[in-house]
Design brief:
- The protein is of the alpha+beta class and 384 residues long.
- It contains ten helices and nine strands.
- The protein has helices at residues 6-34, 39-48, 66-79, 81-100, 103-115, 232-268, 280-308, 314-339, 350-362, 367-381, and strands spanning 120-123, 139-143, 146-157, 164-170, 182-188, 193-198, 209-220, 270-271, 274-275.
- A hairpin with a 2-residue loop joins strand 2 (139-143) and strand 3 (146-157).
């Protein structure tokens, strides 16, 4: 099925909303506080085809636009942001193969990615390497018809329950510039591919974030994405534009959720003989929350539209990611303040938003890095 018009998009979003209402909302609070992997929710997402949302119909995917995808992520994040992260890394891996893979790789892997039979994400960051991906130390040495991989990856989403990853490695550690020695492999779990530990987090509970260890792990040469060494960093940076649109949409969702709870509570809570929503101090907060949320949504849609047109959109995605995630952070704090003491209690949802939002300002490139990307593109596009 290919989503071409607003009517079909509405059907998809209605289906997602029904799924969220029935399968996610009743269980999210307990799963989140127990930090329990939502296995049944993931199985339902497989049935719905959400793991193939951006994969072309010819490979069994839904063929959605990035705009529709961003709206799905926003809707999910309003209910439980962690669930959107289970999709994000998988979608970036799928996009890397769909955009850059050989014909044989697309035919072999995309249908299995679409069904969720193979599900995972991207293995990029390392214990001493986050923003500067060119500093990775994981090495893949050619040995006959295999690459032998040794190294460690850190903070890998879907690392425990996923079974396939786009693995960024150095195939030529000594070349200069460094990015020309970097390649991207399709890495299924097997001998030599270990998960050393689950990483405990402040928020973003439920989704598995892990440290992966590769010890003489062998990957067939035909799993080199695109079949050419030295293109890995370029491939994954293209994918990170999509990842930043996802994180921006998550920011919109969390900002919206925080605002929803604040609006509701402000009408229920009374002080000095009237609901607190009638106090100007609260009205000012609500007005700012609503404006931030809508501005974030518009920036995210603009970036998604540019991505759909095939344009370079690191500036647009960076703007959307920066503004939306800061909006989520500010709205979560304001929602907590509006709730007063109850906002600090686990009985209410706003404490989860307050714990989840900071991650969004860090993941898929810190917001400090987004500002630099925006500034560089601003100069590049306006040369004098």
């Amino acid at each position: 099925m290919s989503i071409k018009d607003d009517g079909q998009e509405r059907l998809i979003l209605d289906m997602v909303d029904r799924f969220l209402e029935k399968e996610v909302a009743p269980y999210a609070w307990q799963l989140e506080h127990d930090d329990e992997y939502p296995a049944q929710i993931v199985e339902k997402m497989k049935e719905m085809g959400l793991f193939g949302c951006l994969i072309a119909p010819e490979y069994g995917g839904l063929g959605l636009s990035t705009v529709t995808y961003a709206k799905i992520i926003e809707h999910i994040s309003v209910v439980w942001m962690s669930v959107s992260g289970i999709i994000n890394s998988h979608v970036i891996m799928s996009a890397a193969v769909q955009r850059n893979g050989t014909k044989e790789q697309k035919e072999a892997f995309l249908p299995r990615f679409a069904t969720g039979e193979l599900r995972g994400g991207i293995a990029l960051t390392e214990p001493d390497c986050g923003t500067d991906l060119q500093a990775i130390r994981t090495v893949a040495k050619r040995d006959g018809e295999d690459y032998v991989v040794n190294g460690t990856k850190m903070w890998i989403s879907n690392g425990i329950y996923g079974n396939c990853f786009a693995l960024l490695v150095k195939t030529d550690p000594n070349t200069s510039p460094r990015h020309k020695g970097m390649s991207l492999l399709i890495a299924e779990k097997g001998n030599g591919f270990g998960v050393s530990r689950k990483l405990e987090k402040l928020g973003y509970k439920g989704i598995d974030s892990a440290e992966l260890v590769f010890n003489d792990y062998r990957v067939p040469v035909d799993r080199l994405i695109g079949g050419i060494e030295g293109k890995g960093l370029q491939m994954i940076l293209n994918g990170l534009e999509l990842g930043r649109i996802n994180v921006a949409a998550r920011g919109v969702g969390v900002a919206q959720a925080a605002m929803n709870e604040a609006v509701k509570y402000s009408q229920q809570r009374k002080t000095f003989g009237k609901p607190i929503c009638e106090h100007q101090a609260i009205q000012i907060k609500l007005g700012d929350m609503a404006t931030r949320t809508e501005a974030s949504r518009l920036l995210t849609m603009r970036a998604a539209e540019a991505y759909d047109r095939g344009e370079r959109c690191d500036m647009e995605a960076g703007m959307a990611k920066l503004f939306s995630t800061e909006s989520a952070l500010e709205n979560s704090m304001e929602a907590m303040r509006i709730h007063g003491g109850y906002g600090y209690s686990k009985e209410y949802l706003v404490e989860r938003f307050y714990r989840d939002a900071p991650l969004l300002t860090i993941g898929e490139g810190t917001n400090e890095m987004q500002r630099i990307i925006i500034a560089k593109q601003l100069i590049e596009r306006n040369r004098v």
